[in-house]
Queue: 2 jobs
Job 1
Amino acid sequence: MAEENPLRRKSDNTAGCGNAPRESVLPPRKGVIVAHRGVAVEVRFADGEQRPVRVKRNSGHVVGDTVLVRGEALERVPRSTELRRRDGRGTPHLVAANLHVLGVVVAPQPPPPRGFIDRAIVAARAAALRPLIIVNKADLDGAGELDRHMRNLYGESVPVFLLSAKTAKGLDPLRRFLAEGLRGAFVGTTGVGKSSLLNALCPDLDLTVGALREARGVGRHTTTVATLHRLPGGGELIDTPGFRDFGLVDIVVEELIVHFPGFEPAMMVRCRFRDCRHRSEPGCAVTALVSTGALAEERYQAYLELLSEVDAAQGEARRREWKT
Ligand code: GDP
Ligand code: ZN
């Protein structure tokens, strides 16, 4: 890989000049990137040792990457999953690698924006992550109702957890779930309590909570750095500033038509056309589900609304591309 070459040359040049063993003859040590600080990544090895390893600034490594380290040379192991976000211009950025689950955090206050949960579930599945819904602020009025609503809409598709990051009530089932050795991250709109939840689950973290976080965080701790944290009972969480706060999850039509929550039975039978958008195509397994009542009309309408939105955004993005 490109970033290794200068290091290799360096070791080759010094070989024979000193007593240091050539890096290439050292057995590689396997580790995971737990933080990324521009010109260095922090690697945690299997024996628990942790140390920085220098990398090129745009090496492309991210938190969660499995790496083989030989002296100062670092090689990335192919990833099983990649979590991306798009910036304001629609350019995708890799946020973290090798995650298993994405926790979609919602709360009675602020309520989830329309379509947010569906988008987040589709985005997670498209990235081969298992989505889960976390209803936070169980101590507030309206949490029970939101939880019932979530179970009603999504209970058949994804696990739903009701908890309070503030009182710690209900944290254990989520801890047990993650303790299966799963690596996860949270996503949700600002104010739902993602930082509070990370603080409650990861004792080594101390994130500032509340609306003033971004302003206060500058210089206090490096808020833009993604970090990976081991949970005391097992499992890991990635704190992804800049990702966790985004309110609108970007998805494309091709992902929406196969991953919309509630379409699972239809995806097993399949529609006649591979690229069926489930509007009025003949042999559509989704509209068949709606006609038998197996898929609620409300869910189908939510899908159609999201489809129009995503389709329009995609068309707009394509037009912009042609212009530039
Ligand atoms: P984030 O923007 O999603 O990271 O949310 P924060 O963790 O910064 O929390 C936003 C606000 O919600 C803060 O005032 C927290 O104290 C509050 N909060 C977080 N979790 C809970 C909870 O379980 N119950 C209640 N009542 N408030 C909470
Ligand atoms: Zn269809």
Job 2
Amino acid sequence: MDNRPIGVFDSGVGGLTTVRRMHEIMPGENIIYFGDTGRVPYGTRSPETILRYTRQDVAFLRTFDIKAIVVACNTVSAVALETVASEIGVPMIGVVWPACRRAVSVTKTGRIGVIGTTTTIKSGIYERLLHRANPDLKVYAQACPLFVALAENGRVHRGDIVIETIAAEYLAPLKAQGIDTLIMGCTHYPLLREVISAYMGSHVYLVDSGAEAADHARQLLVPAAEGKGQTQYFVSDDPEAFRGLAELFLNSKISGQVGHVDIAKY
Ligand code: DGL
């Protein structure tokens, strides 16, 4: 048994898709969540900037005696995880490989779509890992840069003309390719699941990269003792703005304070 907390971070609320799944499948774990809400989005920034942000996010989480870090952000997993993981003595679990593994196991036609931030899609990491698993797969990738801003503003519901119009524009090329599996390669996107699923059709399996990372963490890590773990939340911008949106997405109340972190100090 290892009761030390697991650090989880993202640029904002997206990583809560991982936390929600961790609460379901690993209820005994203590979690420290950091959302870098003062600097969201990450996905339109350069790999150099994301690496700098990641080092600071990790340095903050390491002020706690954590047993591991779950990188609940595809953009960081794509361009900074390998470098930072080699610099620290704490295991780091990303979201990209667990998402690929699920997609490879569920696709029947071998036609897989990937949506993500501009930086994730530009990195080509999903194509590389999917083709490493099976060179015959057909992979179609599409950047969806406006999705994160809409999710951070709670514009995620069906019937909202803005999100429906933008989703249709981004997803039309993937629908035209007749994919049967779509990797939501950004942890913010499961917040748009209903809109994405309604457009793509129920025959397309949606892979939730954040939830897959939580499953992977459960397989890899020494678990905490049974019982109910505590989750503490920290952000780099307004804690109260985060709380409102976070409670909506977690579908539960956050007990205790959301802490504020001056992340530039780390
Ligand atoms: N949720 C993150 C991801 O999975 C980052 C989104 C962003 O900040 O652009 O890529």
